Amino acid sequence: MDYATSQTIGLSRPQRGLGFWNSIAPVLGLFFLAPLTAEYLIGYLSETFTEMLVGLWLLAPLYGGAAIIIRESARRTGRGWPTIILLSLAFGVFQAGLIDHSLFDPSYQTTELWHDMPNPTYIPALGISYLDALYFILGHVIWSISAPIAIIETFVSSRRTMPWLGNLGLAIISLLYILASSILCWGIAIDDQFLPSAPQMAGTSIVVMALIALAFSVRLEERPFAARRLPKPWVVGTAAFMLLSLPNIIEIACEMLGIPSIFMIDWPGFIINILTAGLLAALTWRWSQSRDWSASHTLALAVGALLTRAWIAFLLLPFGDVTFNDKLIQRTVFFLGVVALLSLAAFKTRRCKKECIISEE
Questions:
Q1: Which domain holds residue 160?
Q2: pTM of the complete model beyond 0.85
Q3: How many domains are contained in the chain?
Q4: Angle at 253 between CA 143 and CA 131, to 5 degrees
Q5: What 8-state DSSP symbol labels residue 128?
Q6: 122-123 and 117-118: which strand pairing?
Q7: CA angle 79, 84, 85 (to 5 degrees)
Q8: C-alpha span between 301 and 345 (Å, rounded)
Q9: In DSSP terms, which residues pair with 353 in a beta bridge?
């Protein structure tokens, strides 16, 4: 592929000469994986597989486009995961506050699971449920953006920290994202007959801009500590799985013991979720400071996160009328698909590691 062609399709400079499909494959992979992990894997939608496939015309630019923009912004500026996480957090606030309005829309502040009772963590003065906000924003950070990026980067280890797109390619993805988010915002506003208030929109915008500024103003240099012990990747993945699953495990245990689990949607549940997420973040930060931290450990975190999402899907009731068999088939297909994808990613990581060892010898 010559220089003119690579400029036309918008590939970044380090990728020229690799061939069109090898260069564009990770972009397409992230473009379509992000909506699957963000929306479909959790299993609350009642669409058939055909409807899900059709729905990708909107969800792929929305989630896949955002993931690509965030990754490219970090990698182009020579930054890594701290910047990706902060930008993912900004996206979560932006998406929930200004696009689908889930932070403020009153229709999100009741739950049929608890007899349409008002959300206990809802703060009328702010128009926000703290627990819902945590679920929405944390979900975007982990499953909409970070996990799919970590998985796709595993398959292109030699270009894991390089940009994948040139200016034209990034402009096209950005345009698709703007169109998709505008369509979603307009559609939800019409359906729910709701828009956030001016103070809510202003406050959300300030938070988003502050997070973006922080993402690009704080450059964290790698300072590995040789003496710091680092667990094996499977331990890291297990920790992620257990901590992310713990709130649901507590709820299930209460139901089995005949203990009312309504406290899990109240302030105690909010505190439990904050503590488990905070502990996982603290452990990840501490472990990642070791010079032995590798792509295998990053992948292990994504494995734990996706497997958590996959098994929880079996517990949720989807919107609309869905038969038990249809629900079970859908969840099983996605669960097996996730296991297959993660197994392939793990195999790819091990093979790359062996190749590096052989080349060093």
A1: 3-360
A2: yes
A3: 1
A4: 45
A5: E
A6: unpaired
A7: 130
A8: 12
A9: none
